[in-house]
Amino acid sequence: MSISHTQTASSTGRARLFRNLHTSGRPLVLPNAWDVASARVVEDAGAAAIATTSAGVSWSLGAADGDRLGRDLAVGLVARVSAAVRLPVTADIEGGYADDPDGVAVTVRDVVAAGAVGINLEDAHHAGPAAAPRPVGEQAERIAAARQAADPDALFINARIDTYLLSAGDPETRLADTLDRAEAYVAAGADGIFVPGVTDPAIVSALAEGVRAPLNVLAGPGASTVEDLARLGVARVSLGSSIAEAAYAVVRRGAREVLTSGTYETLAGALDYGELNDLLRGPVA
């Protein structure tokens, strides 16, 4: 994929903007999108950046989440979203769609060429009967490969730690284990640390204090408000796959309603056809 000087300058500006949006106590809020239409809707709602959700992307393209989608389809989606919005785009690339660090580097180069200025790279390994965190050293090598594949001025690497999401290890030492992973990942080249699965304000506060990088947490129903998370020192708040899940819930409720009662109340309050169509009309200026 060839990149012009103008494209490079524009991408560098977006990358710089995206990096500067990560401020402890004044978090970047990311309602994650999964296709061009959802990205345009999120942009129109006033978001400062666009983040993809790997689960939503995978589902929309006919695959299960968990490194099952494949690099080409994932990169193609990033390219379409990046071309469709004016905002910086950060891509959830799961485990890098690769078995080894060299493969992660290939994915990162492709994603940057597709227009992304940020990535999420998770340490969960989905081989075997159940997902589990990769060994720290192994994941650090994958992060280092990602860092070598893209200059810090061009790409913000958000290293995801799944110790809490997967309830991995001893609960008594989980916080210390997470902080150890964060330290190793930052040393390997990560710019930010993402710890999904944490809702306890005391743990969020301890992570914000103990991590030497902007802290990203996953929010949704039952989690602290953005304002409360800001007070705890969080620098980035993501909604992950929750908006996509809510959208598909409407599909199921609407389908069941019309197929059983023959009514359509589930569809009340839908986004207007003309408004949505206008969001997708014509290229980005």
UniProtKB/TrEMBL annotation:
GO terms for molecular function: catalytic activity. InterPro entries: ICL/PEPM (IPR039556), Pyrv/PenolPyrv_kinase-like_dom (IPR015813), Pyrv_kinase-like_dom_sf (IPR040442). This is Isocitrate lyase/phosphoenolpyruvate mutase family protein. It comes from Planotetraspora silvatica.
